């Protein structure tokens, strides 16, 4: 069913709002996903303050006009939805986790990360980065390990004397 001009202009304005507010936008395919699975995904996203919007590709392309995103725009040849959020990594992580359990029906196609277009491979790499807290814990362990060894050596020297 064809959309009226008013409906199209409303959708275009909505897409522009999404582009203005989000720092990360993940393009995903969803064809064949059941309503129940979609509801689970949406609930998980909304709990994190992230939006999930099925977009019309031609109107999405119009919304992108005049935007200065760097990189090569990913080419999408199938139905797509956009997962958008203000956090840099959470939208991609949630999409990637959901894609692992719905491999053939749902997947990342590319997206926009902090003002730059990214292809599928780049978005998958971004999605697989551990959370900030985990990275900080790993860094603290790396810093602690040599110091701990030094303390053990100094303790052994002190016991000998």
What this model shows, in words?
The chain has 161 residues and is of the alpha+beta class. It has two domains: 5-129, 2-Layer Sandwich (Alpha-Beta Plaits), CATH 3.30.70.1730; 130-161. Helix content is 55%, strand content 17%. It has six helices and five strands; from the N terminus they run αβαβαβαββαα. The chain has helices at residues 5-21, 35-47, 57-64, 90-101, 120-128, 132-160; strands at residues 24-29, 51-55, 80-85, 107-113, 116-119. A five-stranded antiparallel sheet has the order 2-3-1-4-5, sandwiched between helices. Helix 1 packs across helix 3 and helix 4 (90-101) crosses helix 5 (120-128). The chain is elongated and about 90 Å long. It starts with a helix and ends with a helix.
Short key terms for the protein model shown above:
161 residues; alpha+beta; Alpha-Beta Plaits; 6 helices; 55% helix; elongated
Summarize the structure.
With 161 residues, this protein is an alpha+beta fold. It has two domains: 5-129, 2-Layer Sandwich (Alpha-Beta Plaits); 130-161.
